[in-house]
Amino acid sequence: MVHLPEIIKNAVDALTRLPGVGEKTAFRMVMNMTNWKSQELDTVGSALISLRDLKTCDECGMFAEENLCSICSDESRWETRALCVVENVADLMAIEKSGHFRGTYHILGGVLNPLLGVGPDELGMYDLRDKIKQKEIQEVILAINPSVEGDATCSYFKTLLPETVQVERIGFGVPIGGSLEYLDPMTITKALENRKRF
């Protein structure tokens, strides 16, 4: 059996920490990188190391180069008095990519999960409630993924807000081009719940 140098083993172990990357895939990546020039390895290494200096926006939690991200520093976004609450950065980016929402965001960083010790304090829900009052937000859109925990998070957060704030949840259901026969019962249930007059 071939004994690999520790440098290769360590590189493989490091890459397996990435989601969806198993040992075989990580090994293939490392084998490919052994053919790279020193300058290419330095460039990738420096880019990864610089992630330590990544900042997050003081207002919404999105990645930023300054104290505020490009969305929160845009006054016209605040003027809409609309706030979209999402679980993570990827969700924010997906909604922003659609180009349909022109308000501001708040990244919760997860959903309520008492079994894992994630409660309202861990998600900063009370601080968010105070921010909504302070910024005079009139409309809150809960763009939380549909799950037992996601539904509980939305229900609980709604109880924290004053009745003067309009709270909505994004619709879930049949995707464009989807066929009913291939959808799971929960998706069909959500589609029926979120139906609208035609």
Report what the structure shows.
The protein is of the alpha/beta class and 198 residues long. It has 2 domains: 6-53, Helicase, Ruva Protein, domain 3 (Orthogonal Bundle), CATH 1.10.8.420; 77-193, Dna Topoisomerase Vi A Subunit, Chain: A, domain 2. The protein is 40% helix and 11% strand. It has 8 helices and 6 strands, in the order H-H-H-E-E-H-E-H-E-H-E-H-E-H. It has a 4-stranded parallel beta sheet. Helix 5 links the parallel strand 3 (82-86) and strand 4 (104-107). Helix 1 crosses helix 2 (23-33). It is globular and about 65 Å long.
What is the fold-level CATH name, i.e. the topology of the largest domain? Dna Topoisomerase Vi A Subunit, Chain: A, domain 2
Tally the helices: what do you get? 8
Helices and strands, in N-to-C order?
A: HHHEEHEHEHEHEH
Q: What's the CATH architecture of the largest domain?
A: 3-Layer(aba) Sandwich
| Helix percentage | 40-55%
Low-confidence stretches: none
What would CATH call the class of the largest domain? Alpha Beta
Q: How far apart lie the N and C ends? A: 68 Å
Radius of gyration: 22 Å
Q: Give the overall silhouette.
A: globular
Q: State the domain count.
A: 2
- Please give the largest β-sheet: 4 strands, parallel
Question: Mean of residue pLDDT?
Answer: 90
Pairing-aware structural class of the strands and helices? alpha/beta
Proportion in β-strands: 5-15%
Strand order of the largest sheet: 4-3-5-6
Number of strands: 6
